[in-house]
DNA sequence: ATCCCGAGGG
DNA sequence: CCCTCTGGAT
């Protein structure tokens, strides 16, 4: 691996998917609270499904104050198509309540505070930090984990270990955008089952690409 | 390790 | 028809 290996990859990703974390984020939102909710809903579903649900959800419950007192069954109906709908409906209503009660309606910025909220794990907390607040945070989801392994940036299967290793390889200013760039590349080219190495721009610097395309 | 859970892609 | 999707809590 080494520094040069990462820099080569990071540089190519910047060309392929230009922009900062906020620009690259595919989730629709107006406020930090809305991004937090959208990210909780994004578990095991597509961003398109989340955006369709939040379009309706935020029209009816735009603020934590309003979502906190929402009818759970109605919320479940709205988020139904994102999957895990009972769990998600309960989580986001409870989440809204805690934001109101514990944080005066304002989403906290510290990772340790964010991860105490229901439905908010390390990945979600880092999304909010990097996309919304412009703070250092490198979300590791299934795409980031898979591409990090394939590219030879980490050999760990543990998301938190991968996060630490990637953070050590990149400047803080690139943490958020790098994560989103890996996600976009994972969706377009480096898919889980059928990676298109033959048309991958990163193949020359990828440990896992077949020799024929490097 | 298992559960939550629908929808679209390959 | 199987797999995967911007996971988190128990």
Automatic annotation (TrEMBL):
<comment type="similarity">
    <text>Belongs to the Nth/MutY family.</text>
</comment>
<dbReference type="GO" id="GO:0003677">
    <property type="term" value="F:DNA binding"/>
</dbReference>
<dbReference type="InterPro" id="IPR011257">
    <property type="entry name" value="DNA_glycosylase"/>
</dbReference>
<dbReference type="InterPro" id="IPR005759">
    <property type="entry name" value="Nth"/>
</dbReference>
<dbReference type="InterPro" id="IPR023170">
    <property type="entry name" value="HhH_base_excis_C"/>
</dbReference>
<keyword id="KW-0004">4Fe-4S</keyword>
<dbReference type="Pfam" id="PF00633">
    <property type="entry name" value="HHH"/>
</dbReference>
<keyword id="KW-0326">Glycosidase</keyword>
<keyword id="KW-0378">Hydrolase</keyword>
<keyword id="KW-0238">DNA-binding</keyword>
<keyword id="KW-0227">DNA damage</keyword>
<keyword id="KW-0408">Iron</keyword>
<dbReference type="InterPro" id="IPR003265">
    <property type="entry name" value="HhH-GPD_domain"/>
</dbReference>
<keyword id="KW-0479">Metal-binding</keyword>
<feature type="domain" description="HhH-GPD">
    <location>
        <begin position="41"/>
        <end position="188"/>
    </location>
</feature>
<protein>
    <recommendedName>
        <fullName>Endonuclease III</fullName>
        <ecNumber>4.2.99.18</ecNumber>
    </recommendedName>
</protein>
<dbReference type="GO" id="GO:0046872">
    <property type="term" value="F:metal ion binding"/>
</dbReference>
<comment type="function">
    <text>DNA repair enzyme that has both DNA N-glycosylase activity and AP-lyase activity. The DNA N-glycosylase activity releases various damaged pyrimidines from DNA by cleaving the N-glycosidic bond, leaving an AP (apurinic/apyrimidinic) site. The AP-lyase activity cleaves the phosphodiester bond 3' to the AP site by a beta-elimination, leaving a 3'-terminal unsaturated sugar and a product with a terminal 5'-phosphate.</text>
</comment>
<keyword id="KW-0234">DNA repair</keyword>
<dbReference type="GO" id="GO:0051539">
    <property type="term" value="F:4 iron, 4 sulfur cluster binding"/>
</dbReference>
<feature type="binding site">
    <location>
        <position position="200"/>
    </location>
    <ligand>
        <name>[4Fe-4S] cluster</name>
    </ligand>
</feature>
<dbReference type="GO" id="GO:0006285">
    <property type="term" value="P:base-excision repair, AP site formation"/>
</dbReference>
<dbReference type="Pfam" id="PF00730">
    <property type="entry name" value="HhH-GPD"/>
</dbReference>
<dbReference type="GO" id="GO:0019104">
    <property type="term" value="F:DNA N-glycosylase activity"/>
</dbReference>
<keyword id="KW-0411">Iron-sulfur</keyword>
<feature type="binding site">
    <location>
        <position position="206"/>
    </location>
    <ligand>
        <name>[4Fe-4S] cluster</name>
    </ligand>
</feature>
<feature type="binding site">
    <location>
        <position position="190"/>
    </location>
    <ligand>
        <name>[4Fe-4S] cluster</name>
    </ligand>
</feature>
<feature type="binding site">
    <location>
        <position position="197"/>
    </location>
    <ligand>
        <name>[4Fe-4S] cluster</name>
    </ligand>
</feature>
<keyword id="KW-0456">Lyase</keyword>
<dbReference type="GO" id="GO:0140078">
    <property type="term" value="F:class I DNA-(apurinic or apyrimidinic site) endonuclease activity"/>
</dbReference>
<dbReference type="InterPro" id="IPR000445">
    <property type="entry name" value="HhH_motif"/>
</dbReference>
């Amino acid at each position: 691996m080494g520094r040069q290996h990462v820099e080569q990859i990071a540089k190519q990703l910047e060309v392929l998917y230009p922009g900062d974390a906020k620009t690259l984020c595919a989730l629709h939102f107006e406020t930090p609270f809305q991004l937090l909710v959208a990210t909780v809903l994004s578990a095991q579903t597509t961003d398109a499904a989340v955006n369709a649900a939040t379009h309706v959800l935020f029209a009816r419950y735009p603020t934590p104050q309003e979502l906190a007192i929402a009818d759970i069954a109605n919320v479940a109906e709205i988020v139904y198509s994102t999957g895990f709908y009972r769990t998600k409906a309960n989580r986001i209503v409870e989440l809204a309540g805690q934001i109101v009660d514990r944080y005066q309606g304002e989403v906290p910025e510290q990772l340790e505070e964010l991860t105490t909220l229901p439905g908010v794990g390390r990945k979600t907390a880092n999304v909010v930090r990097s996309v919304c607040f412009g703070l250092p945070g490198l979300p590791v989801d299934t795409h980031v984990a898979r591409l990090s392994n394939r590219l030879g940036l980490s050999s760990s299967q543990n998301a938190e270990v991968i996060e630490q290793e990637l953070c050590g390889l990149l400047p803080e200013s690139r943490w958020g955008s790098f994560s989103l760039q890996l996600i976009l590349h994972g969706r377009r080219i480096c898919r889980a089952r059928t990676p298109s190495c033959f048309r991958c721009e990163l193949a020359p610097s990828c440990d896992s690409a077949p020799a024929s395309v490097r």
